[in-house]
Design a protein that fits this description.
Elements: H1 2-11, E1 22-27, H2 28-46, E2 54-59, E3 64-78, E4 83-87, E5 91-111, E6 114-137, E7 143-162, H3 166-169, H4 173-205, E8 209-211, E9 216-219, E10 227-228, E11 232-237, E12 240-243, E13 267-272, H5 273-285, E14 290-294, H6 317-321, E15 326-333, E16 338-342, E17 345-359, E18 365-384, E19 387-404, H7 412-435, E20 437-438, E21 445-455, E22 458-467
Antiparallel strand pairs: 1-11, 1-13, 2-3, 3-5, 4-5, 5-6, 6-7, 8-9, 9-12, 10-11, 13-22, 14-15, 15-17, 16-17, 17-18, 18-19, 19-20, 21-22
Helix pairs in contact: 1-2
Amino acid sequence: MLPCVIVVFMLLSAACGENPAVQVILANKGLQYGKHVGTGWIQEQFKKITFPDIGGDVDIKIGKVHYVLSGVTIRKCDLPEPAVDFEQGTGLKTSITGLSIALTGEWETSFGVIHDGGTFNMAIFNMGVTSVVQLGSDAEGHLSVTSNRCDASVSDVDLVFYGGASWIFRPFVKYFKGHIIGKIQGIMCPEVNKAIAELDHHLQAMNVSFGVNEVLTLSVPLTDLPVINASSLELGFKGEFYSTNTHKEPPFVAQRFFLPQQPGYMLSMGVSEFTLNSASFGYFSAGELQVLINDSMIPPLSPIHLNTSSMGMFIPQLPKMFPGLLMNLEVYAREAPVFSLQLGAGILGVQVGVKAVALEPNGTQVPLFKLNLDAAISGKMMIAKGKLMGTVMLDNMTLTLASSEIGVFKTDSLENALKAVMNMGVRKVDAMLREGIVIPRMKHAQLVNTVLTMEEGFVAIYSDAEILPTDKSSYL
């Protein structure tokens, strides 16, 4: 049962009581695909399984025989595809019926002072196991799995002894069979429960926050218990980026949003604007949204350079007051950029400050003026042909004089120049998005038939998944 469950969790790819910023829905289609992939993996792994020794005492009417069956390995396995379904309000129900296995091993018997041994072949017919796994979450937001119920049955066993004085025991095989059936049934559910406990241990060991880069960490604990109904599993994650150094909480919270389920896709995912804005705030609070621009960064052929003479065309008094001096511009975000997601489009609002200084020959920095730049950029995104595609445009931009050490001056001409520069940059991004950016593939799986839509307050992604042909043991 365990491998099927693991494959399903791998297709998905944990603070409680708050609104999730990321929602994931696994539909029945995805569950059944995971089951199908998992069945093939189980079939490959069955032959590697070594059974525990089976032993006991059997009354053969003329006395009790103590036996031990050891070194039990599988020679052949007829594994029907399991039935895996969502168990409403609980978790997952997995059933295997009609499982038949051919085994081989060694036997030893003690009957009074007589000790004997040899080899055996055993066939187990129509084994059946039904396991119900309960899904939950712990205090740290990890997904948890526990065994809710397990039932096991074995229809029949055929046993043939070889070697030693096995001919003596052949008439009494029927007495061994009943005892062995009971033994096998007795170990099946404990083994299933052990596997579920191992999976839970694996889940508890997983990180619920990940370092994205040197600046940001992504926190993805579950915000509440999983929601399971007859056709889907719904998980809600915190989905918050924060500065690794400051760990400062943003001055806003995730808003509730409704992600419609699309049964035609294996996976549905919703990412709210909170997640995007938390990343923006993380960079802002870490002091990363600032840059110092000097004249060496300006292309040599540019008609405008960072010196008081060149800037005189925009600020007439500047070259008169500070003739022939180089300038530096400190550009910084006054506030964290804000993403606003709407039906069919998204808007990015930025508030930028610009401090200008003149550089005296002795290196002294002379404050000149401070500008405020406010801009809004809108865009549309979609996924097609395995690429992220879309369009962006500069909606508006305003430039105002916040303060000045050189007197008041008009910013109209400077605003027009900056608007032209920003439009050039936006057009380059627009051309890149129209061409499309290839979406990186995951190591063991890829998304196929993916659709992205922009909704009110969140981005919705609907997709199927495909496990890539590789060694699936690396999932564990």
